[in-house]
């Protein structure tokens, strides 16, 4: 997959089949569109192209300038590449781009720059200044400029239409089971192992403290979770606490991971952590001993989870 960091960097003599969106999460609904894009590109002998944006339009337009996202740009790239996309354009979304009229976007960008032959788009897609144009407008533009438009309906699970907004809400509620169901893969984040206070090792639960470099990456609600991570090509199981360590009277959010049957120095390593299941909410204990006893129960629960897979 070729990655381009601007619409203006892209050039192809072949016609393209395009889909457009932020694709946060690359969830099952997105995958439905993207799989169709790849299949039709092969059939039509077009190049498949995903046009996405960063920062997220909501960050720029001021409606939700602190919005956190399910995927980092790097995670999104890997997910799209795995689906067989030919080209990804990550275009900077700014106020100038937001001010493009629907007509100018189609004429100058889709036709003039991207050589569009066909667009596959979600049923609820809006575009152009003020997001005033919809699928019906796009179909009319297609007739005018000579490209096809195909609409994809919502992907549903149990009569619930999947959306990035619903997945972000589920993450903030700690409902990791629903998150993973809607994504169609296991939610993960990547972070560096940093120096911690080493209190865990005093109660037989040494932890790796994780720092996520991308401050816009959304993590699950504070609580205790079952996780797994590959370290030097070996898969390790463990459990993770996201929270403020109320037992120790602290208030800054940390991410701490205890790996089972593990004794290696992984300080400064980058780890990709897959979040499998929630165990419980974060709790404040009366003593470190009470915390240790609960962690033993959490460990037993987690190990039985893996035994039953």
From TrEMBL:
EC main group: transferase
Annotated ranges, domain Riboflavin kinase: 182-307
Top-level taxon of the source organism: Bacteria
Alphabetical UniProt keywords: ATP-binding, FAD, Flavoprotein, FMN, Kinase, Multifunctional enzyme, Nucleotide-binding, Nucleotidyltransferase, Transferase
Pathway per the UniProt entry: Cofactor biosynthesis; FMN biosynthesis; FMN from riboflavin (ATP route): step 1/1; Cofactor biosynthesis; FAD biosynthesis; FAD from FMN: step 1/1
The keyword Transport belongs to this UniProt entry's keyword annotation: no
Catalytic activity annotation: FMN + ATP + H(+) = FAD + diphosphate; riboflavin + ATP = FMN + ADP + H(+)
EC number: 2.7.1.26, 2.7.7.2
GO molecular function: ATP binding; FMN adenylyltransferase activity; riboflavin kinase activity
Gene Ontology BP annotations: FAD biosynthetic process; FMN biosynthetic process; riboflavin biosynthetic process
Its job: Catalyzes the phosphorylation of riboflavin to FMN followed by the adenylation of FMN to FAD.
NCBIfam families reported for this sequence: PRK05627.1-3, PRK05627.1-5, ribF
Family as reported in the entry's similarity comment: Belongs to the ribF family.
Name of the protein in its database record: Riboflavin biosynthesis protein
Lineage: Bacteria, Pseudomonadati, Bacteroidota, Flavobacteriia, Flavobacteriales
């Amino acid at each position: 997959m070729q990655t381009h960091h601007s619409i203006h960097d892209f050039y192809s003599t072949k016609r393209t089949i395009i889909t457009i969106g932020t694709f946060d999460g690359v969830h099952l609904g997105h995958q439905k569109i993207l799989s169709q894009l790849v299949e039709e590109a092969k059939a039509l002998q077009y190049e498949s192209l995903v046009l996405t944006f960063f920062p997220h339009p909501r960050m720029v337009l001021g409606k939700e300038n602190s919005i956190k996202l399910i995927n980092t740009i790097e995670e999104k790239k890997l997910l799209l590449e795995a689906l067989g996309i030919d080209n990804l354009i990550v275009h900077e979304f700014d106020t100038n781009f937001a001010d493009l009229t629907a007509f100018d976007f189609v004429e100058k960008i889709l036709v003039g720059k991207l050589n569009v032959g066909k667009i596959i788009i979600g049923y609820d897609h809006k575009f152009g200044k003020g997001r005033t144009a919809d699928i019906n407008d796009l179909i009319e533009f297609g007739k005018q400029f000579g490209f096809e438009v195909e609409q994809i309906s919502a992907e549903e699970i149990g009569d619930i239409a999947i959306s990035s907004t619903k997945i972000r809400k589920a993450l903030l509620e700690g409902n990791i089971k629903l998150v993973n169901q809607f994504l169609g893969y296991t939610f993960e984040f990547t972070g560096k192992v940093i120096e911690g206070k080493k209190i865990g090792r005093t109660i037989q639960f040494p932890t790796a403290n994780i720092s996520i470099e991308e401050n816009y990456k959304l993590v699950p609600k504070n609580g205790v979770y079952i996780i797994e991570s590959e370290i030097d090509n070996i898969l390790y199981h463990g459990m993770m606490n996201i929270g403020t360590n109320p037992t120790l009277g602290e208030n800054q959010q940390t991410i701490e991971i205890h790996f089972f049957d593990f004794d290696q120095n992984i300080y400064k390593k980058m780890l990709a952590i897959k979040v499998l299941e929630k165990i419980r909410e974060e709790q404040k204990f009366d003593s470190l001993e009470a915390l240790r006893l609960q962690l033993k129960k959490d460990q037993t629960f987690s190990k039985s989870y893996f035994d039953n897979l």
